[in-house]
Each structure stands twice: as structure tokens, then as C-alpha cells.
Design brief:
22 helices; globular
Length: about 525
């Protein structure tokens, strides 16, 4: 390949990325976008009411017609429902409760210390998979993977004689590309489950989606992403960043070793977590456990009290382990330190609460108009006529989500837009909301690492510039594109195999949707 050809391709990529970046920047703030969409829904309800768009309800057979929100009754309902739409929005409470516990663990230093312990203990030949795995695990704690692990990975690789950007790429692939994989539940799980539940109730008002609904699939995905990330790093990315001494002017960093206080804190946190795990096992394993339904023979149904309280479990683990670590490490000395940790995590939610307010109005208005159900029924009828296999439909859905993610980075914002249409549509085709949510999460993850719209994209560029001063958007895209392609193909194949085997994707989460009664 000639230099001219290479340069021409580089310019073409840069032009494309510039268009993407400008297009994304031209979009209004997500909160503004939801406010605009809520207004559009109200206007569409009036337009739809002028036409004959009735469809039979898929379960009751009752005729469904659009509800005009510009009528007197509709406007009164809008004004009277603004507050309750917000306070009853399913993801709101679950996210707030989860973050209170996670906030203590983060504020005490537990999460940061655990990640450092993991990477410091890794043998040199396992550095790459350890970085990817640590990245995947870190995504349960929001931004800490981006802020702490990615630069830490660069230091680790440099100390081992490898190019620091190689380590940062592996960590970034796990943190962002593996966003929907984890061995543990995080704050995103109850948030997406709440949105899926809201959408599912368009078809089935009694349907419930528990936050652990994708857990089994997430666990397997953790090892898939780790393996694929390891392979891509060594097979493709390493060739671009050969092992070489860091040149003059590049930043020299050393990883801070674990202090005695941090080691003691981790010991305390481990003991506390094991005690809490023992209590949960005592409540769930025996037939008469206090977290099981008495007299229920079906295992999953008998665990309903535990599954219903999974958000509280996340809160308790974060709180108990965080406090234990803080006591051992000396970062928590009194109850004020604990409360300050909780408050600090809550203080980051200002924009989220504003976004949630407008998203809640959009979702409520959309449900009131019955347009979601009408579109779902008509869309399902079309898909039935096409007679495409479910696997093919979901593969297309994953690609659609991955494409949308290039232009709209927020996982919850996209799902709030897509769930009211696709969850009911796939339900009418016989597929559960939990399965649709898994398909969405795959597509939402795989293009995070190549999307300039991802909120931490600029931060990643800044980290790379510590070692490659001329690094820019094109650098990140070029480095991370092989991961994105591998994750998309590999994860979609896993999804297809899972569907073919008919395995549950989480506790109490089947693949099929069967209408109640």
C-alpha cells in the first residue's frame, strides 16, 4: 500500500469522523431532546386521532385507538400527571438506592484499591486479559474504570516493558466495549430493567422485569469479552504498538504499591462481604429460608422475595463492604464519613434527575396515546408476514442499536426511546422483554469505544496524548475499531447460540413471552 493511498484513507476517516462529531454536537442536550419528543408525541396523538388507526389488543381483542392528548381531557391529564410521572418512573428509585451503596464503596476507596490489587497481582503474560477483565468488572461502578483503570493500565504496561497505549486500549475495551458484561450487578441493571418494565406494560400491565434479568448472560459475556479482548489486543493492536522504551518527553509513571492500610481494608471488606453472602445464602438456599416463598415448589418463583429485593442487595454490598474497607484502611472514622460518601454519589445525579424528569414525561405521554401499542401490533404483523426467523430479527435489532449508539451515547436515554417500540413488538412475536433487553445491551456496548458521542471519549484522547502527543479522535477509532468489530460478531453469535439452546438469560427471565391467563 502506498503512502498516498494510506494518507487518502486517513483523510477519508477523518472527514467521516468530523461529520459524525458535528452531527452529534448539533443534537440538543438529552434532556432537551426528551422534552422536544414529549411535545412531538402530543402533536402526533392529535394527528393519529384524525385517522383510522385502530388495532385489536393482542391479548384481550379490544379495539385500540389513538388517544388525543391535545383534547381538554388530555391536557388536564398532562398537567395533573407531571409530578406522578416523575416520582413513579420505574428506574428512578432503583438507581438512587443502588448509588447510595456504591457511593460508600467508591468514596471509601474500596473500588479503586480492589482494581489496583487486581492489576498489580497479575503475571506479565496475563496482563492483557487481566486488564480487559478488570475493565469489564469496573463498569459496575460508573466512571471509575475510565478515570482510574485506563491510565493505570498504561502505567502497568509501561512498567512491564510494553507500549502503554496497548494497555490503555485493552482496559478501555473492557470498560466501555464490555459495558453489558459483568459477574456482578451494577447500577445500570435496575435502570434498564425499569425502562423495559415500563415498555412491557404497554402490552401486559402486570408484567415485571427484575434487575437481575440478564445476569446469566452477563456472566458468560464477561469471559467472552475478556477472551476476545485478549485476542484482538495481541493479534491486531500490538502490531501497531511494538514493545519499545518510552521516548523522551513521554510521561513516566509508576504504579503506587498497595499500602498496609489498603491491604487491611481489603481484608476487612472481604470478610464483611463473605458474612453478608452467608446471610443471603441462609435466606435463599433452605426451603424455609427467609428470602423464599413458603410452599412454592418452583425454584425461581420461590426466590421472588430475593429477586424483588436485588436493588437492596446491591445497596447492602456497597454499604457493608465500603464501610468495612473504610474502617480497615482508616478512610472512614465515623458515621459522617459514611453519610458524606452517600451524599457525594447523590451530588453527581443533578443532570440525571433533570433528564429523568423529561424522559418520564415522554414515556408517560407515549403510553397514554397508545401509539406504542398500535405501532407494535402493526410492526409485529409485518414481521410475521415476512416470516423471518427470530434470530435474524434480533441480529438486525443488535446492528440497529449499535448504529444508533454512534450518535446517542447514553444507554438509558436510547433505551427510553427504543424500548416502548421494540419491547412490545417482540412481545407480540412471543419473545420476552428480558431477551429484547439483552439484544439492546449488546448493540449498546460494542460501539461505545468508537463513538465520539461517548461521554468519556475526550478523556480517553487526553490519556493517549500523554504518550502520543498527536493522538486524536482518529487515533482512538483506529485503535479500538478491531475490538468493536470482534465484540459485535462474537457477542451476536453467543446471543444466537443462547436462543438456539433456549437457556434462561437470568433468574426468572425466560426467552419467550407467554401472555398471562
Amino acid at each position: 500500500m502506498t503512502t498516498q493511498t494510506t494518507t487518502g484513507k486517513k483523510y477519508a476517516i477523518d472527514r467521516f469522523l468530523t461529520i459524525v462529531e458535528k452531527g452529534g454536537n448539533a443534537l440538543p442536550h438529552p434532556a432537551t431532546l426528551f422534552a422536544i419528543l414529549a411535545i412531538i408525541v402530543v402533536l402526533l396523538s392529535w394527528v393519529a386521532s384524525q385517522f383510522d388507526l385502530s388495532v385489536p389488543h393482542p391479548t384481550t381483542g379490544k379495539e385500540i385507538t389513538p388517544v388525543n392528548l391535545l383534547s381538554v381531557e388530555g391536557l388536564q391529564r398532562i398537567l395533573g400527571g407531571l409530578v406522578t410521572n416523575f416520582t413513579s418512573f420505574a428506574p428512578l428509585g432503583t438507581v438512587l438506592v443502588s448509588l447510595i451503596g456504591i457511593g460508600v464503596a467508591e468514596h471509601s476507596g474500596l473500588i479503586g484499591a480492589a482494581l489496583r490489587k487486581l492489576v498489580l497481582a497479575a503475571p506479565r503474560f496475563l496482563l492483557t486479559p487481566v486488564m480487559v477483565f478488570a475493565g469489564v468488572m469496573s463498569n459496575m461502578a460508573s466512571e471509575i474504570g475510565y478515570v482510574l483503570l485506563v491510565p493505570l493500565a498504561g502505567m502497568v504496561f509501561m512498567a512491564a516493558g510494553r507500549h502503554p497505549i496497548l494497555g490503555m486500549a485493552a482496559a478501555f475495551a473492557g470498560v466501555s466495549g464490555g459495558y453489558s458484561a459483568n459477574l456482578l450487578l451494577g447500577t445500570i441493571d435496575p435502570l434498564l430493567a425499569g425502562l423495559s418494565e415500563e415498555a412491557a406494560r404497554i402490552v401486559d400491565p402486570s408484567y415485571s422485569v427484575n434487575p437481575a434479568a440478564n445476569w446469566f448472560f452477563m456472566i458468560v459475556s464477561t469471559f467472552l469479552v475478556t477472551g476476545l479482548g485478549w485476542w484482538v489486543t495481541e493479534r491486531f493492536v500490538a502490531a501497531r504498538f511494538p514493545n519499545a522504551p518510552v521516548t523522551e518527553g513521554q510521561q513516566q509513571d509508576q504504579i503506587e504499591q498497595m499500602s498496609a492500610a489498603e491491604k487491611r481494608g481489603l481484608t476487612f471488606a472481604t470478610i464483611a462481604s463473605l458474612v453478608l453472602t452467608g446471610l443471603l445464602l441462609w435466606g435463599t438456599v433452605p426451603d424455609n429460608g427467609f428470602l423464599r416463598l413458603a410452599g412454592e415448589d418452583n425454584l425461581l418463583k420461590s426466590l421472588k422475595p430475593f429477586l424483588d429485593g436485588i436493588v437492596a442487595v446491591i445497596f447492602l454490598y456497597g454499604l457493608v463492604a465500603g464501610v468495612a474497607y473504610g474502617i480497615g484502611a482508616g478512610t472512614i472514622r465515623n458515621d459522617s464519613d459514611v453519610i458524606n460518601g452517600m451524599g457525594k454519589s447523590m451530588s453527581t445525579l443533578g443532570v440525571y434527575l433533570v433528564l429523568t424528569f423529561f424522559a418520564a414525561q415522554f414515556v408517560a405521554f407515549f403510553n397514554w396515546t397508545q401509539l406504542g401499542l398500535i405501532f407494535a401490533v402493526k410492526g409485529a404483523d409485518l414481521l410475521i408476514q415476512l416470516q423471518l426467523p427470530g434470530i435474524v430479527l434480533f441480529a438486525g435489532f443488535i446492528v440497529l442499536t449499535a448504529t444508533a449508539n454512534l450518535f446517542m451515547g447514553s444507554a438509558s436515554a436510547k433505551w427510553a426511546l427504543m424500548a416502548p417500540v421494540f419491547v412490545p413488538m417482540f412481545m407480540l412475536l412471543g419473545y420476552s422483554p428480558e431477551l429484547t433487553q439483552v439484544g439492546y445491551r449488546i448493540g449498546d456496548s460494542v460501539t461505545n469505544i468508537i463513538s465520539p458521542m461517548m461521554s468519556y471519549f475526550a478523556l480517553i484522547i487526553a490519556f493517549l496524548q500523554r504518550y502520543e502527543p498527536k493522538a486524536g479522535i482518529g487515533t482512538v477509532i483506529a485503535v479500538m475499531l478491531p475490538y468493536s468489530i470482534a465484540f459485535l460478531i462474537g457477542w451476536t453469535i453467543l446471543f444466537m447460540i443462547w436462543m438456539w439452546l433456549g437457556l434462561p438469560i437470568g433468574p426468572g427471565a425466560p426467552l419467550q413471552y407467554v401472555p398471562a391467563g
